[in-house]
Amino acid sequence: MPLESGQALSGLGLRSSRISERLNQVDCVRANGVGDHIPLPQLVVCGDQSAGKSSVLVGISGIPFPRQDGLCTRFATEIILRHEPREQRTTATIIPNMSRAEDEKTRLSAFRRDISDLADLPGIIDQAASLMGVKDSPAFAADVLRLEVAGDTGLHLTLVDLPGLISVSENEEDVQLVGDLSIIQRARRFDKDGLRTVGIITKPDLINDGTESRVAKLANNADRTKLKLGFFLLKNPKPSELQKGMTMAERRKAEQQFLRMNLGRSLDSILHDLLDRHIERELPKVRKDVAQLLNKINKELMNLGAERTSPAQIRMYLTRISTDFQNLVRAGVEGVYGSRDAFFHEITNENEFHRLRAVIHIENGKFSNYMREHGQKRRVVSAEDQEDVEPESGQILVTEEEMSMWIKKIYYRTRGRELPGNYSPVLLAELFHAQSARWSDIARDHVNVIADLVSRFVQSVLVSVINDTDVWETISRSISATLDENKARNDRSKKDLGTSLDNAINEDWKGRFHVSNSSYEISRLATSLQNHRVIVDMEERACSEAQTDLGAYYKVAMKTFVDNICRQVIERHIINKLPDVFSPVTVSGYSDEDLLCLAAESPQLSKRRVEATQLKKGIEDSLRELR
């Protein structure tokens, strides 16, 4: 039973040149795959179970869906009519739902049946139902059976046969599933003005005796339930007539005879004008939506970038992004914030680290102030404030008297052959060593703050120049390893940054930035800084001078230490080499294996690029079609 020539549209008034052209335009857009991304004008038949929806679609499409009393559609069926007079073919395929597991998607997608006789369609639908798992089950499937009919159909048209709306079911999942499948579950919700909704009264020949007048009143839109576009009668063939092989022509004739004997209007009397108005009203929106979709796809393709499957392609890609990375990092390090407006100018509290040099200055200032105010191990406060002032971590609050007692204690421990009133050079060294005990921890905390800012800055730069998440992760790991190596390079054993900071304190103590520990230098410093107080007790005098010298010595050493931390540790080992951690020179040294590990695109990304490219072509073809 091949599809009768032109039977799909016979008697429905859909062959006028203008509406045929418009419907062809819309369905060409749908055939290009654009309908999966934007809403397109279409005919949708929805109603309760066993209300005759499939029969309505049979009347429009001419495709003999299996229809039996008491049975209803268990899955959506998409009917695609293609007007190709020189080609006659009918194909059935299954479109798996996205929620299916990958192996199920593969199994269902493999379903394909070429139909030479539409009499075979019921059996093919049963096969599809079995594959979906709903043949002998009351459940509903979210998959779609697609029937593509190419031939003398009259025009392109796509129709959808949906499972009926369920009002009561023992399985709540069925109610939800059908709700998800239905394009219009409640017409008024989607068509508040009633400009697109037509009421269709099916099975009018099966009404009970005595209710004919009520049905006629409803059909004439004179009942309490009114639709702006009214109601129409559609007489479906009886099961006995279908078994005898009633043709579409015989169906039309039987329907017209029935309508002439009753008071209703047939659907085909207004469908032409309804479609004409609806399509003309919606086409400008479709053109706008298609144009916006093209812009979106162009942006996505730009973000996806060029193909990256060979080492040469990857090297070119990495060279480009490493150049962008290096330029942006150098601008941040040097404090030149005009090179990338989007990166450096849209600054908030959350991303102020983008202006790296500025935040480093701020943090260095905080470090210097903290060292000056809280760097000493023993901090002298008044007796009155001792209980109210909260000491910093690892700090001891002492009074002037307690400080003097501590210095005297160390003085006694370091006595040598010096004359009364003088003190051993070792005294000042031990006092300073004790007072600067907190410097290492404070410096480590400061360096960690800077390292964190630098890490966040680098990660943000990478996000700015790399769109591929997988590449971002691999490059990020590589750069983090390089940064860690730079920070630890000052220590020959390369254990950790802590060793570098210890070296900055202990090794430099030997004369690099401190005053010489000789008795001559200490005496000279003491003489220049003494308050020339006359102290009779020679021990008291020595301790007092040591305390004065310690204060002066501490200030000089602290300033040098702060400067060394900021310049030697932060600048030399963290900041200066930052632009070179990922540069074109670095990329040039990568082997082919390194390149493939770092930035070869994933199969998913390759697939998406192909899909996006194909969709772009379909969108461009659709725009030309809609002009």
From TrEMBL:
InterPro entries: Dynamin, Dynamin_GTPase, Dynamin_N, Dynamin_stalk, GED_dom, P-loop_NTPase. One of its GO terms (cellular component) is microtubule. SMART domains: DYNc. It holds the Pfam family Dynamin_N. Residues 543-627 form the GED domain. PROSITE patterns: GED. CDD domains: DLP_1. GO terms for molecular function: GTP binding; GTPase activity; microtubule binding. The keyword Nucleus does not apply. It comes from the Eukaryota. Keywords: GTP-binding, Nucleotide-binding. GO terms for biological process: endocytosis; intracellular distribution of mitochondria; mitochondrial fission; peroxisome fission. PANTHER family: DYNAMIN, DYNAMIN RELATED PROTEIN 1, ISOFORM A. This is GED domain-containing protein.
